[in-house]
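Sharing a chain and its predicted structure for anyone who wants a worked example. Both blocks are below, sequence first, C-alpha cells second.
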Amino acid sequence: MRKILLLSITLLTFHAAAQEFGQRSGFRGVVSKKNKPIELNEVPVSAALGKETFASATKQITLLTAKEIQELPVANINELLEYVAGVDMRQRGPLDVQGDLGIRGGTFDQTLVLVNGVRMNNPQTGHHNMNLPVPLAMIERIEVVHGGATNAHGIGAMTGVVNIVLKSPQKKINAGYALITGQNNLINSSFYIGKKVGKWGVQFGQQGQQTAGYIANTDFSSQKFILNLERDYKLGKEEGKLSLMYAENQKAFGAQNYYTSAFPDQFEATSTRVLALGLDETIGQKTDFKMNINVVSGTDRFELYRETAGLGGFDASEVAYDKLPSGRYYRAADGDSAASWYGGPNFHQTFVFNLNSRLSHRWNREHQTSLGYNQRYDEIHSNVLGGDFTDIYLVPGWDGYTMDKGASTTDFSWFGEHKFTRGRYQLRAGGMLNYHDGPSQDSSYFFAPSMDALYRLTKESSLYATVNRSIRYPTYTDLYYNRGDAQGSIGLKPETAWNYEVGYKAKEGDLYINGALFHRRSEDLIDWVTYTDIPDTAFASNITSLALTGIEGGLSYVAKKRKQMLRRATVEAALMTGNSPEVDYSSLYALDYLQAKITARATQKLGMGFFANYALTLQDRMGTYNSLGTEVDYKPFALLDLKLYYAPAAGIFKRQFPFQAFINITNAMDANYYDRGNVVQPGRWISTGFEWRFR
C-alpha cells in the first residue's frame, strides 16, 4: 500500500508541476521546412534526462537510420549492431537467435536496452535482453549511447544504452513487404503497414524467420509482431500524443554449446510480450512531460538435453533425447543417457512492471531543469530460480511440471539535473537516487551523480567532458542458478563503476567526425568464473575491480546529391586496455572484452539502378576459453559482408512502389571465428530477396 501511495503522490506532483510551468506561455514546435532533410546534428537523442540533440549531447553517440539499415546486408537488429565499433555483440547464433550485447568492454548485463523508451532488460538473465519484438522495417533509428548513463536512465545503464525508436504513422499510407531466402533453408519474411487519419494513427508489423541451421542443433524459428496506436490531442495550452503498443516475440532454437560444452545438445524456447501506454505532452512553450507505463512478461524453457523436434527442416533425431517412463532421458541414436540428476527442462516466467516519467522545463535561454521518476517491480516464477514458494504454479502445456520457486525485486529511482547554457559553454549537473529492495532482504540506497561540460569551438564543432557513476544489480540467474556445472550465489553485491570521458565532435560539409578518450573504474564486478582445481564448474562471484581505458573515433560521410557515386561511408575504431589484479580463475565474461574493433562500411552507386554495400569488421578479443581441458586464446578475425542490390529511382508505377532486389553474402571470406568460446559461428552464408514499399 505504501508503494502505491508513493507512486500516486509522485505522479500527481509531476503533472501538477508541469501544468504550473506551462501556464506561462503557448508552444510552437520547431518543424523542419517541407522536403528539407533533418541534419544529423538536429536529431533528438536519449543521452540525458532532458531534451538533447546529437550536437548538444556530451557523450559519444552512434545513430543508425532507417535509410542506412535498408542499405546494409542485414535482416535483424543483432547483425546491425555488429557494425558499431564500440559495441560487442557476442552472438551465440545468427539471425537474432541469441546475442549478448555489451558496450565499451562491458558485459551483456551492463547495457540497457530500450524500445521507444520501454526497458527490455530481462530480470532472469541478460542473455534475453535482445529478445526484441521489433521487425527491422519498423525502425526509424537506433541510438547507441556509449558510456554509463545511470544518471539519466537508471539501474542497468552501467556501460551504455541502446534505444530503438520506432516509426510513427504518417498521413500517407506506408506499407511494405520483404522476403529473403538462402542457404541452410533460410526463410525470412516481413510485412508492415501504417496510416494516420485525423488525430488517430495505427501501425502494424510482423516478421518471421526460420532455418535448418549451419551445423547440427543450430536450427531456429521465430515470430515477431507489433501493433502501435497513437492519438494526438490538445487541451488548452497542453498538446501531445497518447500511444498504446502491444508487441510479441516467440523464439525457439537449437543451442549447441551455448551455455556449456559439457552438455552440447541444448535447446531453448523463449517468449517476450510488451504492453505499453505512453504520454508525450508539451505545455506552453517551455515544458515537456513524458510518461510511460508498461508491462513486459517473458517465458523461457531450457532443455539441457534437447527433447524438442527439429525446426526449419532440421532432423533432430541424432541429438534429441526421449523421456522414459522411469523419468530418465535416453537418446536412441547413440544409446546415450542423461546425467542421473537431470529431471527435465528449466521453466521460468518473468513479469516486469515499469513506470517512467520525465519533466523538463526551460526557464529561459540559459537554464533548463529536468526531473524524473522510475518505479520498477519484477518477479520470477521458476522450477529452478528463487526461494521456495508456498504457491505452486503449473507449467502450461507441460503436464507434471510445476514452478515452486520464485523471487521479486522493487526499485524506486528519482532523477534530477540542471543544464546551464551561455554563449559557447554548456554545463550540466545531476544525479539519480535509487532505493533497491532485493530478494535477499538487501534493501539499500545508491546515489549516482553526474557532471558534464561542453564547449563549442565553432557552430559545427565542440569539445566535451563528462563524469558519472553507474550501477547494475545481479539477475536471478546470478543469484539462484544451481544445476549441472553452474552455481549462482545469493550473496552477490551490485557492481558499480565511475565513468570518465572527454571527446570531440564536428561537422565539416558532408563529413561527421567524432572521437573520445574514456576510462571506467569498476568495483565488485559480477562474473561467472572457473578455477583450475574445479575446471568443470562455473561460479557466480563478485570477482575483482577492473580499470578499463580506451579510445573511440569515427568518420562518416553522407552524399547530399543523388548522382554522387559514393553514397555513404563510415569508418569507426574502438581500442581498449584494462588493468585488474592477478587472479587464479578464468573469466567467462567480464575479462573477455574486445581490446580492438574496427569497422568500415560504404554504399556505392554502380549505375543503371544498381548499388553495392561493403561492410568490414575486424575484432581482437582479450581472454581465453576452455576447450577440451585446455585454455585457448581468442584469435583475432576479419569479417566481410557484401550486398548487391537493384533499386530503380522510379520504383514501380511512378514511384508509388519503391523496390529493391538484392543478394547478401555474410562472412564472404568464410572466416572461422568465435564470439563465445566453443560456439562456432556460421561460415559464408548467401541469401537473396526483395523488398517493396507502398507510399
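Comments welcome. Residues 2-22 form the longest helix (21 residues).
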